[in-house]
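During the second half of the funding period, the structural biology subgroup turned its attention to how the target accommodates small molecules. The most pressing case was NAP, which had performed well in the primary screen but for which no bound structure existed. We therefore specified the complex as follows and requested a full 3D prediction, including the ligand pose.
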Amino acid sequence: MKVFIAGGTSGIGAALANLYLAKGYLVAICGRDLQKTVIENGNLTKYEVDVLNVEMLQLYVLDFVQQEPLDLFINTTGSYADDVARKIRYNESIDMLQINILGTINCFEIARKVMRKHNQGHIVTIASVSGTLHYPKASLYSKSKRAVIQIADAYRKALEPFGITVTTIAPGYVDTQKLRDLNQQNLSKKPYLVSQEEAAIYIADAIVKKKELYVFPWKMKVLMKFLSYFPARFLDIMMYKKAKWMKND
Ligand SMILES: NC(=O)c1ccc[n+]([C@@H]2O[C@H](COP(=O)([O-])OP(=O)(O)OC[C@H]3O[C@@H](n4cnc5c(N)ncnc54)[C@H](OP(=O)(O)O)[C@@H]3O)[C@@H](O)[C@H]2O)c1
């Protein structure tokens, strides 16, 4: 099995790389800074590349597959910032739009071209549980992840006739260094937090089961379903207050 993980240098992507390496799969990871990577394994190939550099990313994916089928392409790249209380900076907004939306499309485009040669493969993209809930004043992060869910839906529809599967993963809070850094190392106010190793197990299971949209953990999924029955105006107020409470603002 050949697995390419865009963004496997840390967090959820790195946990997935470890999980697939333990199964004996051939795994490639990429990120903008390979020095972050601590994984050392003979079955691991590392590429330093930005997903916004579509030409280089494609070259590296082709270098990894070497004319063989690519079984799995997982895009875990993503940009999230301290967006919750609507104090996000311009550069952070642009990063979020580019990496979360443009980067997602770049990954889909490269993976579908490579997989179409053999008419097989599975493309997985990481959205967020926050993207599953619609309300007008949701954060830019939630809006961009909602876009990811829609983009994946369109690719699923287009690629299904050609034997290519698409899975969207919508995680709740996952205990990664990035999430910790954004919360002054304190995740005590994050409900239903799961470790990155648990997240990797949930995601790998959803991939085996070829889920279309997989939300985890289940308590977060139930909470989102419950919240979806509330009027949008109520959600606007409630989510804003929750964000300020989480930030002690
Ligand atoms: N942690 C959570 O609670 C949570 C919840 C819901 C959804 N998510 C989503 O899950 C994904 C992973 O999150 P995480 O917490 O594991 O974050 P993370 O540790 O920062 O992982 C992100 C990975 O993507 C890479 N990356 C980011 N931008 C890139 C770019 N432009 N080109 C190439 N690689 C890039 C990073 O490496 P470099 O910095 O070296 O490029 C890193 O390897 C994100 O999409 C996030 O939105 C996370």
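Two results from this model are relevant to the next phase. The chain has one domain: 2-246. The first strand starts at residue 2 and ends at 6.
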